[in-house]
Design goal:
alpha+beta, 12-stranded mixed beta sheet, two-stranded antiparallel ribbon, 8 helices, 28% helix, globular
């Protein structure tokens, strides 16, 4: 008789804090051992808005993912999808994402989001094969300390702080500033509606550049992430004016140098995505790079 007949069937279940070591083993080869998932896992299993699922082969965790509900909304995120080395390209990612979608449906989620890099073709295939469609795409690049030389910011350009209410007014007056329905921030997105901007405002401070006619020509904001004694500054930059974009980049570089951030990550609107290539310090690997938002509607409106 074939030996496979004696193997134990795979098991899909919710993970608990007792699975921490298994999570560590699963993620140890991701991003050269710098994966955020092992650090986030204890928060997920304690969070009443999160459900973390795993697939086991015998007693070995081979795949995992997390569903996180956005409080007070019918929105949720697929997070931390991981498949262990040696078990990839065998359908585990699709199987666990289908299970996450089912949990979202049970929680009456109407908008389920899934973000990934344009370079992660395997992740994109999982999204597409489980019924997600591409909802947004933004430019993406990184810089590392020591940061490049750059022009001094102009004294004639004065960025202003804006509340979510004020930003919503400005975006409504100039819809070209954020042409999509969502706004990226630190590897996630939210709607550019007033409610979405209010949620984002809890984590950042919006800055805008307004012209003489009262129209917003640029928006930028930042979220800091510290992991393993390293500081990452994640910036969102949208602009309809190239000169203002270049000036904002100079301000940002001054800021990250002062804060001693180890790296700066940029999520860019359409204009800045194009103009970034002319700055002279964006590495070739980021030409054409995008950060993608996929969406699915588990419970139809």
């Amino acid at each position: 008789m074939h030996p496979a007949r004696f193997s134990m069937p795979s098991t899909l279940r919710e993970l608990t804090i007792e699975d921490q070591n298994q999570v560590n083993l699963l993620c140890q080869t991701v991003w050269e051992g710098n994966d955020y998932v092992p650090e986030s896992f204890p928060k997920w299993v304690e969070d009443p808005l999160a459900t973390t699922l795993g697939i086991f082969e015998e007693n070995e965790l081979v795949c995992m993912s997390n569903l996180e509900l956005v409080s007070g909304t019918s929105i949720a995120w697929v997070q931390g999808l991981r498949v262990k080395d040696g078990f990839r390209h065998k359908g585990y990612g699709i199987r666990i994402t289908d299970a996450i979608v089912q949990r979202a449906r049970e929680n009456r989620v109407r908008i389920l989001w899934y973000a990934t890099s344009s370079q992660n073709e395997a992740s994109q295939r999982v999204a597409e094969k489980t019924g997600f469609h591409k909802a947004d795409s933004v430019g993406y690049f990184r810089l590392y300390s020591p940061y490049p030389n750059h022009p001094k910011p102009s004294s004639s350009i004065v960025p202003l702080k804006a509340s979510s209410e004020r930003l919503f007014e400005l975006v409504s007056l100039n819809p070209d500033l954020i042409p999509s329905t969502t706004l990226p921030m630190a590897w996630e997105f939210d709607f550019k509606s007033l409610e979405g901007l209010k949620r984002l405002e809890k984590h950042t401070e919006f800055k805008v550049v307004i012209d003489e006619a009262g129209l917003a020509q640029a928006l930028y904001c930042k979220v800091d992430r510290r992991r393993k004694d390293e500081l990452t500054a994640a910036y969102t930059v949208f602009s309809t004016d190239r000169a203002i974009f270049v000036d904002i980049m100079s301000r940002i570089l001054d800021e990250v140098i002062t804060s001693k951030a180890d790296r700066a990550v940029f999520f860019l609107g359409p204009g800045p995505t194009e103009w970034a290539l002319s700055l002279g310090y964006v590495d070739q690997e980021f030409i054409g790079r995008r950060f993608l938002l996929y969406e699915k509607n588990p419970v139809e409106f």
